[in-house]
Amino acid sequence: MNTLYIVSKLFTYLVLPPGIFILLFLFASFFMRKFRFFFMMCGFCFYALSNSYVADSLLTPLEKPYNIPLQASNVDAVVVLGGGSHQGVANLPLSDEANKRALWAIMIAKKLNLPVLFSGAGANQIYSESSAFLDTAKAIQTYFSLEIPQTVKLSEKQFSMHMENKSLDTYENAKLCQHMFEQDGILHPTIYLVTSAYHMRRSIALYEHFGFTVIPAATSFKISSQEKDFWDYLPNMWALEKSYIALHEYVGLLSLTLRGI
User: What dihedral angle (degrees, nearest 10) is formed by the CA atoms of 172, 178, 183, 187?
Assistant: First the structure.
């Protein structure tokens, strides 16, 4: 590894956010004695949350239990949760995570000849997650010559596509999906639940609260078994994002506990 490469990489880690913010907090703690402890703690928290060791430690309890092969089971359908969309893009309008969820759900449903139910509207009222899923499904049908019927009932165990396009969060995902299954005569559905691995624990809790039997089918994993090195000690935006995702999930799990779910 040559010197120029090392210098350029150090420059990238320390000058781009969040590294530059950590350095600014440290400089502030040096020059402003009155608030020294406050600025030092801000710098320490920023550093801790933006290095890969801490980020992966936060995510591991959420993801590891679901990093397993798909479990064979007698289920009624595959339910996939929305995860964001991008309006106005040339192709594949679902977000990166949502695309992984959608593709994995369709793969499972096609392989096992099951209905696939997409759940999610999202905050964008003009171009919803469900609309993006429909456009993605159309592209899959066109490019792979794969027919996905939309007129088959959920109660008929046949490869088909169904939409729940009103939910704004995971609680509503589960509640409205339950209503759709009840309409088709399935009172206690057993499902493969497809969502991001870090989101699975909270999703299972909510779907079980509404009477589902859930077989997890996680995807979009954020951590890997790859060995870490010196560079992983340095702050980077991807680690900070993973820490944010993990903390968001822990807050969500706490809220379920407080609500008795």
Answer: -160
CA distance 252 to 28: 34
- Per domain, the residue ranges of the chain are 3-64+234-258, 71-216
Please, what is the angle between helix 19-31 and helix 3-15, to 10°? Answer: 70
Sequence letter at residue 95: S
Query: Could you list the mean pLDDT of each consecutive 10-residue stretch along the chain, which spans 261 residues?
Result: 75 82 88 86 93 95 96 94 90 93 96 96 81 92 91 90 94 96 95 98 98 97 84 90 97 95 87
What fold does the segment set 71-216 form as a domain? Rossmann fold (3.40.50)
Strands 160-164 and 115-119: parallel
pTM of the model: 0.91
Distance between CA 20 and CA 34 in Å, rounded? Answer: 22
Q: Which amino acid is at 79?
A: V
How far is the C-alpha of 165 from the C-alpha of 159, rounded, in Å? 19
Give bridge partners of residue 119 from the DSSP assignment. Answer: 81, 164
How many residues appear in the chain? 261
Give, as one character, the DSSP assignment of residue 71.
Answer: P
Answer whether 172's CB lies under 8 Å from 166's CB.
yes
Beta bridge partners of 93: none
* Backbone angle region of 69, left / alpha / beta, with phi > 0 → left and psi within -120 to 50 → alpha: beta
CB 150 within 8 A of CB 115: no
Torsion sign, CA atoms 195, 199, 200, 205 = negative
Convert 26-46 to b/e letters by CB count within 10 Å (16 or more is b). Answer: bebbeeeeeeeeebeebbeeb
